[in-house]
Amino acid sequence: MIPLSLLRTLAVCCAIVPAAGCQSFFGDDEDTSVGAMRLAAAPAVPSAQRRDEDGFPLLGAVPRAAAPQLTDAEAQAGQAQLGAMAQQRAATPPSSGPAQVARLQALRQQQAAEVDAALARRPEAQQPAASRPQSPEDVLRQIEAGE
């Protein structure tokens, strides 16, 4: 049985621990200058959120207009760059289909020959099938025989 004094202490601890989450475990030694510097460094960006006459945001209110994303000069420069890329791609001749297929088939045959040669060099491939161990007992006998 648990002593009553231990049970009281445990109950008090269980009541205090959730309340301790609301308070900082550290003192008021926090440096608020870091937050102030971040706020000062952040540029003021106008919001498209609609507000009522008291300045509070209207929940669910759709902004009247989209915020400008690019200037006209930036948009024209981007279009000119994309146009130049399209002209460059159109000027290069496309690779012919049958020649590409023939090149890839030759590459496949070369790789298959390399794989066959590598498989032929494996030690298991050089042993006759009859000398290969077939069961764990055969392997144990070979180990004991020193083969």
Highlighted features:
147 residues; mainly alpha; 57% helix; Beta-barrel assembly complex subunit BamF; signal
Can you describe what's shown?
By secondary structure, this protein is mostly helical. It has one domain (4-145). The chain is 57% helix and 0% strand. The chain is built from 6 helices and no strands. The protein has helices at 4-20, 33-41, 72-91, 97-120, 123-126, 136-145. The longest helix has 24 residues, at 97-120. The model has no long low-confidence stretch (mean pLDDT 78).
Topology:
Layout: H1 4-20, H2 33-41, H3 72-91, H4 97-120, H5 123-126, H6 136-145
Signal peptide: 1-19
Keywords: Signal
Biased composition (Low complexity): 73-91, 99-113
Brief sketch in words of this structure:
By secondary structure, the protein is mostly helical.
Give the uncertain stretches in residue-range form: none
Radius of gyration: 39 Å
From the structure provided, what is the oligomeric state, counting identical versus distinct chains? single chain
Average pLDDT number: 78
Helical fraction equals: 55-70%
In DSSP terms, counting alpha (H) and pi (I) runs of 4 or more, how many helices?
6
| Biggest sheet details | none
Biased composition (Low complexity): 73-91, 99-113
Keywords: Signal
Signal peptide: 1-19
Region (Disordered): 69-147
